[in-house]
Design goal:
Chain lengths: 343, 284
């Protein structure tokens, strides 16, 4: 196993600007007339690394890969990424492999990743990373803030996936970290005295705090998780994703009922289709909620592949036979290749 | 001999005795003053807690199982880590009770604490709690009980209990707010009764809230035929339950509103999936 070098002693040969603090990054997407998507700014500094493949001429969206040197974040690393998607912009953030969180060394602070995303009217943002994989004894805080400029007509749109696994199963790590905290906050914007759009009302907050050092009765964190090895949250909002939201709601409403007898002749019984049965057999459990203008989906499972397949199926709007909808919302808006992390 | 000694005492002795008495009297006065300072202002209002801990309080808690019904119904889809230890209905229940208390301590208790300590900000707190409670089923349960608590306050309690607020306290706050959610309204309404913002009062506010929650869960468990009424009372009276509630109070009141979050993610899933049960007797 390779271990990344500590932050303090490292040099930063590839950072594009030396004036910004370590771990900081900025992605600014602008649309130039008539409709050319450009990366107006792309800055980053060690341990953060951003890679943007050159978009093809007719690309519907820009993709940026968020990476870290050594493939993970060590104790004390602090990443602070700021993203702006201007009017009409389409940006998708992805990763190349799970974000590994290494164990906390004594006397160093928790590993922190912050991201603040501003989405202007008519702009759309996808966050489809690989899962976070906190190793044993790690201590991780993730704080993602999304500022939606247009919540009246809902043209500031997003799909955010946030998921965490139990650790390195091969090394018998099962939820054996010290602490894991993930907070996704969605805000509206308001005008301040000088006419700038600043962060406004809190629209939605999804926060999960897993405390590995806490015993509940005599139960450890691992025992509390009911053999689930992965938890995923998907948050969706905005006009361009209206069909996707409708699809997920319908699918949840048609979920096979719990406690229903097989011989029952109730209408629900004919809806046991292939994908639902497969999800059930893979130990996938999910729930969808419509909350304050957002659709929020929670998924958990006993094994990672099942959850990946399930989430991919949801986001690509598969039919009863598991075939993705042609020109589903995400592919329609952003083009192909958005689901790399779900392959 | 003693009787004759006192009247025949010389006047000088009488004088010293008098000065001794006055000295002792002033000491007593000082000690009494000290005691006044050390005493917590008003004594805990037993009457108030009997009202608020009453299971007949018409806020409809009996209609909610806080995810217990769904948790039990998902029995076959849950995978206990240790399959050798076969859970009984009672151990299923006590486990859920522990998880539920842990979850509430990090999600709801911070908001009750904040509403009790800063009652004038209760509407903002209520809005934040609304944004933070992402499980649809939990939201409905919380709003239903929160609004019911406010109605009970307006229709039944306010006329007799509100008067207490204009006691000696100088920190005044508006009394007309009516938050939607159960947690924020519990903190606000209990403060309206005139409880002072002291650590002792806060402890009682939180303890009674959580104890009520345990009672509601146990009552739901009896109606789900997991346990009988005697076992329910046995669990309620047990040292372990008292300790769990205590720990939940201590854990939760240290968490700020911005740090609140779900610490038992499976609870959101079980509770969220309550709607998917084929048959159900509870609203959550």
């Amino acid at each position: 196993m390779t271990s990344p070098s500590p932050t303090t002693s490292a040099t930063t040969p590839t950072s594009s600007q030396s004036s910004i603090p370590a771990g900081d990054g900025l992605i600014h997407v602008r649309v130039l007339p008539p409709s050319k998507l450009t990366l107006h700014q792309l800055n980053y500094k060690y341990p953060l690394k951003l890679i943007s493949p050159a978009p093809s001429q007719w690309a519907k969206s820009l993709t940026v890969f968020v990476l870290s040197y050594g493939g993970g974040l060590v104790s004390g690393d602090a990443v602070n990424l700021r993203v702006v998607v201007e009017k009409g912009g389409r940006l998708c953030l992805q990763t190349q492999g799970s974000t590994k969180i290494f164990k906390q060394t004594p006397s160093s602070p928790p590993t922190i990743q912050r991201m603040t995303v501003r989405i202007q009217p008519g702009a759309s943002f996808l966050l489809l990373p690989d899962p976070v994989q906190p190793f044993a004894e790690s201590n991780y805080i993730q704080h993602q803030i999304f500022e939606l400029e247009d919540t009246t007509d809902d043209t500031s749109s997003l799909v955010v996936l946030d998921w965490v696994t139990e650790g390195r199963t091969a090394r018998d790590e099962h939820w054996s970290f010290k602490r894991f905290e993930s907070r996704n906050e969605f805000f509206g914007v308001k005008n301040n005295e000088s006419g700038e759009n600043i962060r406004g009302r809190l629209l939605l907050r999804d926060a999960m705090i897993l405390d590995g050092e806490l015993l509940c009765g005599d139960e450890t964190l691992r025992e509390r998780q009911d053999s689930q090895t992965i938890f995923a949250t998907v948050v969706i909002r905005g006009k361009p994703f209206a069909k996707l939201i409708e699809y997920i709601k319908t699918r949840y409403a048609n979920e096979p009922r719990i406690g229903q007898k097989r011989w029952d002749t109730d209408d629900d019984s004919r809806r046991h289709n292939r994908i639902e049965v497969e999800a059930r057999n893979n130990g996938v459990l999910w729930a969808a909620s419509s909350v304050r203008g957002f659709l929020l989906v929670k998924v958990s499972g006993v094994e990672m592949e099942g959850v990946k397949r399930f989430v991919k199926g949801l986001l690509s709007e598969v039919d009863d036979e598991g075939v993705a909808r042609e020109n589903g919302c995400i592919t329609g808006e952003f083009g192909t290749g958005m689901f790399r992390c779900l392959e | 001999m003693d009787e004759t000694a006192a009247p025949t005492a010389p006047t000088e002795d009488l004088e010293t005795l008098k000065s001794q008495i006055s000295c002792l009297e002033s000491q007593l006065a000082a000690a009494k003053a000290q005691l006044q300072i050390q005493l917590p202002a008003p004594q805990p209002p037993l009457h108030l807690w009997l009202l608020l801990a009453d299971s007949a309080l018409p806020i409809g808690s009996f209609a909610f199982s806080s995810g217990l019904e769904s948790y039990i119904s998902h029995r076959t889809l849950r995978h206990p880590l240790n399959p050798q230890k076969k859970p009984t209905p009672k151990t299923d229940l006590t486990r859920f009770l522990r998880l539920s208390l842990l979850s509430i301590s990090t999600t709801t208790i911070p908001f009750i604490t904040a509403a009790f300590q800063n009652p004038s900000t209760v509407l903002t707190l209520d809005d934040t709690f609304d944004a933070t409670t992402t499980c649809e089923v939990a939201r409905r349960a919380s709003i239903s009980q929160g609004r019911a608590l406010c109605s009970v306050w307006d229709k039944s309690f306010a006329s007799s209990l509100l008067n207490n607020t204009n006691s000696t306290t100088e920190d005044t706050f508006p009394t007309h707010h009516r938050p939607d959610h159960f947690g924020p309204s519990w903190g606000y309404i209990t403060r309206l009764t005139g409880l002072q913002n002291t650590p002792e009062s806060l402890y009682q506010v939180l303890f009674v809230f959580l104890f009520n929650h345990v009672k509601a869960l146990l009552s739901a468990a009896v109606r789900l035929s997991l346990i009988g009424p005697y076992v329910a009372q046995q669990i309620l009276a047990s040292e372990e339950t008292r300790r769990l509630v205590d720990e939940a109070v201590e854990r939760g009141k240290k968490i700020s509103v911005d740090e609140a979050g779900q610490s038992v993610p499976t609870i959101d899933l079980w509770q969220g999936r309550h709607e998917r049960l084929y048959t159900r007797i509870f609203n959550s």
